[in-house]
Automatic annotation (TrEMBL):
Extradiol ring-cleavage dioxygenase class III enzyme subunit B domain boundaries: 86-344
Gene source species: Neurospora intermedia
Family of this protein: Belongs to the DODA-type extradiol aromatic ring-opening dioxygenase family.
Key words, A-Z: Dioxygenase, Metal-binding, Oxidoreductase, Zinc
GO MF annotation list: dioxygenase activity
Cofactor(s) the record lists: Zn(2+)
SUPFAM superfamilies xrefs: LigB-like (SSF53213)
Protein name (database record): Aromatic ring-opening dioxygenase
């Protein structure tokens, strides 16, 4: 299907990047009001692009008692390898929009991870952190992790969202060792969690509940590229973490076209490519693991790929997940085709038996 977007009508994509997704999640009446509010503003105060967010190099090696205990447990874990997960994370209001169909799905996945998988630590890759074309960055900060509110035009309480998470320089160092072994350049930085992590995680792992994350959480960047092979190799490089009880979670969207949202406003019926591309990705992921990279490489060459992902930042995390899966089978556990978006959730590997 030809892209329905008129070429003569440019959009201010940067200011509305996350606003568009959040609006899509909202109820129709709320969405229209919020859209009017965002559209009417001049955008002269929108936050700088996430990849330009301030970061500080740190060489801290201090360890809190919680981190020391968790890191010790990593090396002594006798549990089976935990699965790898891919979250379609939505916009910054996903944690507030309890009526959206994805809300209970993320809750169920979080319950599975905390109560059945029981990770010793969590390592997360988000679509909203791309480092450089040739270098990976990761948070090696010690203690509580700050948040980055990488969106604009939302109600004030969106900028007061919290998500308690504790980093681990020891786990970050382990990741860097694995990346070096795979000939991948990396750099440790102190950086907060972006909304690609904390918004969805507030649903899957609500604080102060029995589903809260109480183990170290380390975020790792993507490459600043659309290279599926490079991201698959990135996942392969960190696969060994699973042998130590680490859950790897990659977050993005399986179809993510903000430009075409204007054509589906108020109508949740999916555009054709939202269905065709999501289904093609499912077929590529769920086939035999031996040929998975070849199939997934072909997905980005499809005629509908640029409609599904004008820029492929939200697609690359699933390549990381598939690489980290090793020989484990991937399965789509749920999806939703909505306008110019698709919300597929994936798990690679088996959930431990209780």
């Amino acid at each position: 299907m030809p892209n329905p977007r008129p070429r003569s009508r440019p959009l201010m994509i940067v200011p509305v990047l996350v606003a568009a997704l959040a609006i899509l999640l909202a109820s129709s009446s709320t969405a229209r009001g919020l859209f009017s509010r965002v559209r009417s503003q001049t955008f002269n105060k929108f936050t700088t692009a996430l990849n330009n967010a301030p970061i500080t190099t740190t060489t801290s090696t201090s360890t809190s008692p919680l981190q020391a205990a968790a890191t010790a447990n990593l090396t002594s874990s006798k549990m089976g390898r935990p699965p790898v997960y891919f979250f379609s994370h939505g916009g910054p209001d996903v944690q507030y929009n309890t009526k959206h169909p994805v809300y209970p799905v993320l809750q169920a996945i979080g319950k599975e991870i905390i109560q059945k998988v029981k990770p010793k630590a969590v390592v997360v890759f988000s679509a909203h952190w791309q480092a450089t074309p040739s270098e990976i960055h990761l948070n090696n900060g010690d203690g509580p992790t700050d948040l980055i509110y990488d969106f604009y035009g939302f109600p004030d309480h969106f900028y007061k969202a919290t998500f308690p998470a504790t980093g681990s320089p020891q786990i970050a160092a382990k990741i860097q060792q694995l990346l070096t072994k795979a000939a991948i350049q990396s750099k440790g930085l102190k950086r907060g969690l972006d909304h690609g992590v904390f918004s969805g995680f507030n649903v899957a792992f609500p604080p102060n509940t029995d589903q809260a994350i109480t183990v170290p959480l380390v975020q790792v960047s993507l490459f600043k590229s659309e290279d599926p092979d490079a991201h698959y190799r990135l996942g392969q490089a960190v696969e060994e973490l699973r042998d130590e009880g680490v859950v790897i979670i990659c977050t993005g969207m399986t179809v993510h076209n903000l430009r075409d949202m204007q054509f589906t406003w108020g109508d949740p019926r999916p555009l054709p490519y939202a269905v065709s591309f999501d289904n093609a990705l499912k077929e590529a992921v769920e086939g035999d693991a031996e040929g998975r990279l070849d199939r997934m490489r072909e997905v980005v060459k499809r005629g509908d790929a640029r409609q599904a992902h004008p820029w492929m930042d939200h697609l690359m995390p699933i390549y990381v997940a598939a690489g980290a899966a090793g020989k484990d089978k991937g399965v789509q556990t749920w999806t939703l085709h909505e306008g110019s978006f698709a919300w597929a959730q994936y798990r690679f590997g088996d959930v431990p038996e209780e």
